[in-house]
């Protein structure tokens, strides 16, 4: 592939009430708003796999690491509106967010955000909470390991009924945890459905030739709030969990309005 992976950028979680969800993550994990996102005009929803125009308002939240750590991308969809369609527990795909917190029980605990998104809270080594990763239930663990390792070129460390996707180096401690759920039906979570929808991987310049199968293609996405545009492409893993390539740095050219 012609692109180079740099780090995990953010996890997108869709909310029915941005204020309530933002308050939950600030109160329980000490997150702070790094940027607001709210495009002034509707734009083409093709990158999200949505036909027609889309609008949203959102918050990019950081933990104590600021821009040096992965962000939580909270979105409240306006057009179309966030859909309250819970993902079945028996389904493959994104299962839960993972946060670390120094006061968590040794064996972890489970919380839910205001929309019911599951969150595994594990004990962290540092003194402050951190966004640590996501868990994905895999209809075939072997197929998922091969996809992340051979198709995306990411380091994967297998350990029995689970595997961990993580990047080397001290900058990025974020993990994608792959858990076996043999035969589970694929995730059909939509871009506007409530809960976890995608994980963004920051890369060098994106080209069509470097995209994985079933990608929505390369698009400029307007972020609003003076942030300009970013270049992005979305694609599903073998379990239906959506991943995103996002080009490093913010662009300046306006995205085409719908």
- From the 3D structure, determine the CATH topology: 2,3-Dihydroxybiphenyl 1,2-Dioxygenase, domain 1
What's the mean pLDDT score?
90
The shape is globular
Tally of separate domains:
1
Secondary structure tally, helices: 2
CATH superfamily: 2,3-Dihydroxybiphenyl 1,2-Dioxygenase, domain 1
Most strands sheet: 9 strands, mixed
- Distance between the first and last residues' Cα: 31 Å
Class in CATH? Alpha Beta
CATH architecture: Roll
Q: What is the SS-derived class?
A: mainly beta
SSE order: EHEEEEEEEEHEEEEEEE
Radius of gyration: 17 Å
Account of the protein in words:
This protein has one domain: 2,3-Dihydroxybiphenyl 1,2-Dioxygenase, domain 1 (Roll), CATH 3.10.180.10. The protein has helices at 18-29, 141-151; strands at residues 5-14, 32-37, 43-44, 53-62, 71-79, 93-101, 109-112, 118-123, 130-138, 156-159, 162-165, 175-180, 195-203, 219-222, 229-236, 242-247. The protein is globular and about 45 Å long. A hairpin with a 6-residue loop joins β14 and β15. By secondary structure, it is mostly beta strands. The longest helix is centred in the first third of the chain and has 12 residues, at 18-29. The protein has two helices and 16 strands.
Key structural traits:
258 residues; 2,3-Dihydroxybiphenyl 1,2-Dioxygenase, domain 1; globular; 7-stranded mixed β-sheet; 9-stranded mixed β-sheet; mainly beta; 16 strands; 2 helices
Summarize this, please?
The protein is mainly beta and about 260 residues long. It is about 10% helix and about 40% strand. A hairpin with a 6-residue loop joins β14 (about 220) and β15.
